[in-house]
Design brief:
982 residues, mainly alpha, four-stranded antiparallel β-sheet, two-stranded antiparallel ribbon, 48 helices, elongated
Length: 982
């Protein structure tokens, strides 16, 4: 007989309840008595795990927690207060110490939609990690490494002994006797009394790890954002702080950049309006980036600095510094290039050239392999700020990449004369001495000295230093020391196969441990791959980084972006789930997942993701913007405008929201206010960020709506002439030409785009449409199929191929293409409707009705499926049913004149003559010049016996359409009716 499983429950305050049966706990979850934040253990025992991770309760918790009301969205205010009037005495940056509402979100599992097969997709939210650590001790990040020794066999033996001892001890503690609730409470109090001692042990362990590991110091580096201050500092104090910051920046070491950041933040806390301080702060962010966790919080600080500096100095170099740094660090290299170029074009020949932008230009050029040109810009930076060492060190690194070792050696020697303790320069020079000049003793001594110092260098440089040290130790037969140094190098640069192979040569696979690996170098290299267009390689780096460090939300987020870029849309959504699980406060991951869900036409899933985001961060403008984007993708212009306005109320200078506002008003397709608002929003967008390509395109579209299509075409043509290598402007021009029915010009424009980037799916799609409308059906089909080949996970190309076959009346092939598209994405809009249209052409009228009915279930507010059903009923001579379906379509939206004529036809043949007359009058208001209105009026009057009116209507029909195919028949009817009037 099976024993009934019982459980003990521990709430967030450590109170114990139970034992309960599985069924009792399921009931408590249903009644809300257990919310998902509790811990649970089988009875008897104390093997505590979060209840949301217990398989017996996971699904039930999911169902209860997933019942989010899509209409209850609590996103009211932005968490920051920078968007108030900056000229006010009270306009200060927010404090990072602000009190936030604490919600019980730890270990909650929330349903955020369904996948392709209909299964639920979930996000497990663990906001407060401290509670887990109190229950389970320190996380796996806190690992003590084995002490260095020459006798690895002895260490292995000691490990085995300790493991056996630990196993015995833990097995003794696995079971407790649960007599009653009071006894449990006593034992819990005893456990809590031990917490201070345990905490002390944990602290000692962490300090030990922090001191021993080569990369652990870097974890202590934090980006600092100015806190809100009420006391202003004097101008002299402010200038003294900035001068101290600049002196520290000049020295170009980790420690000095940390000091510089501190001085700059103090100056900004005294005067938020100093644009020079904001520019310097973003420069320190750029240089400290290799040392920080690069978390969502770090990106958020960078974004906030960009917003404030841009608002204070929208077009100047100080305001643009943060923008350029932001674009570089988020791998938006083309946008960064345009931003940097615009500043150098405007200010480079002035009295005070923007020295930082010469350095940023070198970074941008080096990212695309243009090292020689980058060196020229570094020369300019050195001349403008000769005491800043960073341009010299970077120049030396580029010389090394170009295998120009003597110039590299000379530049590094110059840096070390100015700053003998410069760690990066010391390591780079030691590598040159070892690899290129044969100065082994000098390199050996240099590395032994510099690697022992406390100051930091970027992971890639530190890994290089340890690897060279390992090779030198091996040459001198210090094999244990060589292995130790090689393992440190691998921990800092786990993606370096050469280092990994060297570790394996000296040791074994057991020495390739990921326990203490710092994955940031993998992410940095992934960013470099992404910027250079090697998306697949970037994706592999990001995935590896996340597999090693499952807490790294940014790695999973970036992996999702690359997967989407590669066409693996379903996988991209799943990786964003991983990003959210790793950091439930990473709002950008929620927003991007909602966008991806919406682009896959899973609008319900997108809204659920945003509902969770709204609960995690209820005062964030990004959540409103996310809702606005989803509504825009749904083509609900009014909904998009409503949400975009709420986002703008919180942050008026957000360029993405302004773009959404412009697009939504253009989508309304109304003259007057909508066009004016679209133009105003697009104008604001390019004022905020002139180099934003999407902003420029929507401005051209709004300009065309205001001033005529030729004005928009001319604007895009100028952009193409200015930036001939940019694909986006050519594709936008192609679309505008298609909309203006200038198909030949559109084809020429899109072919030029494909000469620049032959694998552009969007260019192939639009080229197919241009060819289709131009009547070049073979070329059109070829373009659509090429687009489908480039992105097999996107149904759009196959859907368009189906439309092409419909246009040429090949119903069988049309149906085949639509069904292929349906297999890729069952939610693709109008897919059932067009399968129905194909069946209608094949004279399978009942099949057409069935498919249209399926479309109505998915999209009940679309009029087309009702019209298709009505047309099918007409063919089947079910005139009463035909009229009913047309009426349903009319309730959704105003129909075309042709459809009002059709419904009048159905009413007439079903005997509802008054309704038929009403429909014809509506048709006349919508489309008075349509001759078919008068033909149907003639038939209606003839049915009513009003022969003279019928004759007049028939005669009007023939006047409006003198080449009517049924002219002889109508003339015959006129003669017959004329006889009846005699």
């Amino acid at each position: 007989m099976n024993k009934v499983q019982r459980w003990i429950v521990k709430d967030s305050k450590g109170r114990l309840q139970g034992p309960y049966t599985t069924q009792q706990i399921l009931q408590k979850i249903s009644f809300g008595e257990i919310g998902g934040e509790e811990y649970i253990s089988p009875y008897p025992g104390t093997n505590w795990v979060p209840i949301s991770q217990e398989p017996d309760f996971f699904d039930h918790l999911l169902k209860v927690l997933a019942n989010l009301n899509d209409d209850q969205i609590e996103v009211v205010h932005e968490e920051e207060n920078f968007d108030g009037p900056l000229d006010s005495d009270h306009a200060h940056p927010p404090s990072d110490d602000r009190n936030e509402k604490k919600e019980s979100l730890e270990d909650k599992t929330v349903n955020i939609g369904t996948d392709k097969s209909g299964h639920s997709e979930t996000v497990k939210i663990n906001v407060t990690q401290e509670k887990k650590e109190k229950a389970h001790g320190p996380t796996s990040d806190h690992v003590i490494r084995e002490p260095k020794t020459g006798n690895r066999e002895r260490v292995k033996e000691e490990k085995t002994k300790r493991a056996k001892k630990y196993k015995k001890k833990s097995s003794d503690d696995d079971v407790i006797e649960l007599e009653d609730q009071k006894e449990l409470d006593k034992k819990e109090k005893l456990k809590q009394a031990k917490i201070p001692l345990i905490s002390l042990v944990v602290i000692v362990v962490i300090i030990g790890v922090w001191l021993f590991l080569p990369n652990s110091n870097s974890r202590a580096t934090k980006l600092i954002f100015p806190k809100k201050k009420s006391v202003k500092i004097s101008k002299e104090e402010e200038e003294a702080l900035i001068q101290k910051a600049e002196l520290n920046i000049q020295k170009d070491t980790h420690k000095n950049y940390v000091n510089a950041q501190s001085y700059i933040v103090k100056s900004l806390e005294g005067n938020i309006k100093n644009t020079k301080s904001w520019a310097l702060l973003c420069l320190t962010y750029l240089e400290l980036w290799p040392y920080v966790d690069q978390s969502a919080e770090d990106y958020n600080k960078l974004l906030k600095a960009t917003r404030v500096s841009r608002k204070l100095d929208s077009a100047g170099p100080n305001g643009s510094t943060c923008q350029a740094v932001n674009l570089i660090l988020t791998s938006k290299l083309e946008e960064a290039r345009l931003e940097i170029k615009s500043i150098l074009d405007r200010y480079g020949s002035g009295q005070y050239p923007p020295v930082v932008f010469y350095y940023l230009k070198a970074i941008e050029l080096a990212s695309t392999g243009q090292n020689e040109l980058a060196i020229n810009y570094l020369d300019s930076a050195q001349k403008l700020w000769p005491s800043w060492l960073r341009p010299y060190v970077f120049q030396a690194q580029l010389y090394k990449k170009m295998q120009q070792y003597t110039p590299a050696y000379n530049v590094l020697s110059k840096v070390l004369r100015a700053s003998p303790q410069h760690k990066v320069a010391q390591i780079e020079l030691a590598e040159l001495e070892f690899k290129n000049f044969g100065h082994l003793e000098s390199a050996y001594t240099r590395l032994n000295n510099v690697l022992a110092t406390k100051d930091l260098a970027p992971n890639s440089v530190m890994a290089k230093g340890f690897f060279v040290q390992a090779q030198l130790h091996a040459k001198y037969d210090n094999l244990d020391q060589a292995l130790d140094a090689a393992k440190k190098a691998y921990q800092l640069d786990p993606g370096n196969q050469t280092i990994k192979n060297f570790v394996l040569e000296l040791g074994s696979a057991a020495d390739i441990s990921t326990a203490n690996v710092d994955v940031r170098q993998l992410i940095v290299e992934g960013d470099q791959f992404f910027r250079s267009g090697k998306v697949q390689a970037a994706s592999a780096n990001y995935k590896t980084a996340f597999e090693i460090d499952p807490h790294n939300s940014i790695a999973a987020y970036k992996a999702a972006q690359t997967l989407w870029e590669l066409g693996f849309s379903e996988q991209a959504v799943k990786w964003l789930n991983k990003s959210i699980q790793a950091d439930p406060k990473n709002i950008d991951a929620y927003i991007l997942q909602a966008e991806y869900q919406a682009k896959r036409y899973n609008f319900r899933g997108a809204r659920k993701v945003l509902a969770v985001a709204a609960k995690v961060s209820p005062k964030n403008y990004k959540v409103y913007r996310g809702y606005a984007k989803v509504e825009l993708i749904r083509r609900d212009a009014k909904g998009a405008i409503s949400f975009a306005q709420k986002a703008l109320n919180l942050y008026s200078t957000d360029v993405e929201t302004q773009i959404i506002m412009a697009k939504a008003n253009l989508l309304l397709n109304q003259a007057g206010d909508a066009n004016r608002i679209a133009f105003d929003s697009a104008t604001k967008a390019i004022e905020i960020d002139f180099n934003n390509r999407e902003a420029q395109i929507v401005y051209a579209q709004a300009y065309a709506r205001q001033e005529g299509v030729d004005a928009g075409i001319h604007y895009l043509s100028r952009l193409i002439n200015t930036y001939p290598e940019l694909l986006d402007y050519r594709i936008a021009l192609g679309k505008m030409l298609i909309d203006d029915q200038r198909y030949k010009e559109a084809v020429e424009t899109l072919l030029a785009a494909l000469n620049i980037q032959p694998r552009s799916k969007e260019a192939h799609l639009n080229l197919g449409t241009a060819y289709r409308l131009y009547g070049k059906f073979d070329y059109a089909l070829k373009s659509y199929l090429k687009a489908a080949e480039l992105d097999p996970a996107d149904a759009e190309a196959l859907f368009n191929a189906g439309l092409l076959y419909l246009q040429i009346q090949n119903a069988k092939q049309a149906r085949s293409q639509f069904e292929r598209a349906q297999l890729i994405n069952p939610r693709y809009p109008l897919i059932h409707y067009y399968i129905g249209e194909s069946l209608f052409l094949m004279k399978d009228y009942q099949g057409a009705i069935d498919e249209a009915t399926k479309e109505i279930r998915v999209n009940p507010k679309l009029p087309q499926p009702y019209i298709l059903i009505a047309r099918a009923h007409t063919k089947m001579k079910n005139y009463s049913l035909c009229a009913q379906e047309y009426q349903k379509a009319i309730k959704i939206s105003q129909l075309s004149g042709e459809n009002y004529i059709n419904v009048a036809y159905c009413y007439r043949l079903s005997g509802s003559l008054d309704e038929a007359r009403l429909m014809l009058e509506k048709a006349n208001k919508v489309e008075s010049g349509n001759p078919l209105i008068h033909k149907e009026f003639g038939a209606l009057f003839e049915t009513l016996g009003e022969y003279r009116e019928a004759i007049k209507s028939y005669e009007t029909y023939l006047i409006l359409d003198p080449a009517a195919k049924d002219r002889a028949l109508i003339e015959s009817r006129i003669r017959i009716l004329g006889d009846k009037t005699l």
